[in-house]
Design brief:
This is Phosphatase PAP2 family protein. The chain is mainly alpha-helical. It contains 11 helices and 4 strands. It is globular, with a radius of gyration of 37 Å.
């Protein structure tokens, strides 16, 4: 029996594409259009069998294969998808309780030996504070008397001493915002950790320790007339004066430790550890502390205590800045080619 002749073109396309049967390219086009849906279906499912040749139309159908016996064991549960890395913001937010616990337990916790050595060193400096502070005022503050940075813009000029702490806050905020906009997770985490270091500096140095010590500031040998409130003294052991616990604080009983030094050392520690560099973080620290240095009015032991406390606070928040990953998924600023092959900057952000 003669097998049926298969048309190279489906009936639905014959009126339009197969009327020119003498042109070979029309037959190829029809075959391509007819087979495209089946090829796509085979790629999606991957289970359809190939069509039998025309000569096998009279062959008996194959016997169905016996299905294997159903197993009584339950099918294994599908593995849960792995959770992606937490965002820098959520990492910083979740780090607050652990940071508070470590700071609160520092005198008797795992850092007790370090805290004890630092306290003994500062106490030893108090014994020598009078000659050391006079030498500091004469050989450091006096030569830098006219040096000061421009005031920070807007309300930031009221932050800290001489407006330089406002520049510090602006730089920290710029680090976080730049990291968020560019998809740089390391910069974003560093900015958030530096912001945490600033907050802890206010809590520990300005609100807690200044209230506990209540120490008077040293007199300014060049401007003794500025002590109208009796907040300055020549006695380095003049502690225990009550002060109003508020922000910003006044000069009375607010000498130890130096908040200005604390916050700069805390932020510098975060940046130095995050970027494995000492030069530029501490170089900016020296520049910021040298600005308007005569308005600080601190004993040498006050500044050393602030440096030690700030370094410790920076070390506490450091793990949040050193989390894994340097780029953040979900967008950022990238250099791409537009539709005409020209380079262009593209910014995107995923939420």
């Amino acid at each position: 029996m003669r097998p049926p002749v298969l048309s190279p073109c489906p009936p639905s396309l014959q009126p339009r594409a197969c009327r020119h049967r003498r042109r070979p390219w029309t037959l190829g086009l029809c075959a391509l259009l007819a087979g495209a849906p089946w090829v796509a279906g085979a790629q999606v499912t991957g289970t359809q069998a190939a069509a039998p040749p025309a000569s096998s139309a009279l062959a008996p159908p194959p016997a169905p294969e016996a299905s294997p016996p159903a197993s009584s064991a339950p099918a294994p549960a599908a593995a849960a998808p792995e959770a992606g890395p937490a965002s820098p913001w959520s990492q910083a937010w979740s780090a607050w309780p652990a940071q508070a616990q470590r700071i609160a337990t520092a005198p008797w916790g795992e850092d007790r030996q370090t805290v004890a050595r630092a306290a003994l060193g500062v106490a030893g400096l108090v014994l020598l504070d009078k000659p050391l502070t006079r030498a500091w005022q004469q050989h450091v503050e006096k030569p830098l008397q006219g040096f000061h940075l421009p005031e920070a813009p807007g309300p930031l000029r009221h932050v800290g001493t001489g407006g330089t702490d406002g520049w510090l806050a602006l730089g920290v905020a710029g680090t976080w915002l730049g990291g968020w906009a560019l998809g740089d997770a390391q910069a974003e985490r560093t900015g958030l950790a530096a912001g945490q270091a600033m907050v802890w500096s206010v809590v520990v140095s300005e609100l807690l320790l200044k209230t506990v010590t209540g120490r008077k500031r040293p007199q300014d040998p060049w401007h003794p007339e500025t002590d109208a409130e009796g907040a300055f003294t020549d006695d380095p052991w003049d502690f225990g004066h009550r002060r109003a616990t508020r922000l910003p604080s006044g000069p009375m009983g607010t000498s130890m430790p130096s908040f200005h030094v604390t916050v700069w050392f805390a932020v510098a520690k975060v940046y130095a550890d995050s970027y494995d560099s000492l030069a530029w973080p501490y170089g900016l620290l020296v520049l910021g502390l040298a600005s308007d240095i005569q308005s600080h009015r601190h004993w040498v032991s006050d500044m050393v205590a602030g440096a030690l406390i700030g370094t410790g606070l920076g070390a506490v928040v450091r793990p949040a800045a050193q989390a894994s990953g340097t780029t953040r998924p979900g967008g950022g600023l990238a250099l791409r080619l537009d539709g005409q092959g020209r380079p262009a900057l593209a910014w995107s952000r995923a939420w």
